[in-house]
């Protein structure tokens, strides 16, 4: 399985044409990030999927005029994927830097999305970058690379209290400044939906009410509940003309469960609320 990497390069557009990514601050996370950046402290974003962690990193990178390299970690992501590897090109064997090495050399923000999913050697690889050393030892090359002063490490982690989620060791967590992400308040989430998709306020409110209702149905034992992302998807479908009930069914109910009875119960509930 290859590891997905994306590189968002800072905008070179003149400020008056530049449209920053939309992000609605929920608490004081912008301020915390700015101070962590100033003090070169790594940040851990904790919270369920779809609560705006990735969007927040994109927003902050734009605000700080930094490039961001994102690595979507999965169970096979290894330190080699991050640091780099030798590859064979024609008759030659050449070294190719991985995203972590690129980020520390160019001074970008490295965002390790879902760090707890990665192999344990990934955490070991970033140790020397999360303390005063701020350097990376590349054992295959026998060299130590000092991090560019603008380099910053950001990781995300879904604490998931249900089984099946991977935990992050306390000793690793203590290397980061941590910011918690939760589902936004009714008012904030309605505003996010409207700003993100252009959906009318009354429908946006109804979607948020559906989300909150389902989030409170803990007895259903859903592994993951309704995220803002699912609401955004439903809003986009509604806006493009798909009937509301069908939009809610395919964008909110169906992604949550495969259980036929729960699907039916949730569909009935949503049909009444939309
Ligand atoms: P995560 O990284 O936590 O899984 P994302 O950042 O991908 O979640 O968020 C999913 C979607 O939810 C975003 O694409 C955006 O549309 C929306 N979203 C969630 N929270 C916010 C927020 N505070 N401001 C703006 N958009 C948000």
UniProtKB/TrEMBL annotation:
Domain CbbQ/NirQ/NorQ C-terminal stretches: 189-272
Q: Which GO terms describe its molecular function?
A: ATP binding; ATP hydrolysis activity
Keywords on record? ATP-binding, Nucleotide-binding
Q: Which residues cross the membrane?
A: none
InterPro entries registered for this protein in UniProt: ATPase_dyneun-rel_AAA (IPR011704), CbbQ/NirQ/NorQ/GpvN (IPR050764), CbbQ_C (IPR013615), P-loop_NTPase (IPR027417)
ATPase dynein-related AAA domain mapped to chain residues:
42-176
| CDD domains named among the record's database cross-references | AAA (cd00009)
Q: Which family does it belong to?
A: Belongs to the CbbQ/NirQ/NorQ/GpvN family.
Under which name does UniProt file this protein?
CbbQ/NirQ/NorQ/GpvN family protein
Q: What organism is recorded for this protein?
A: Aequorivita ciconiae
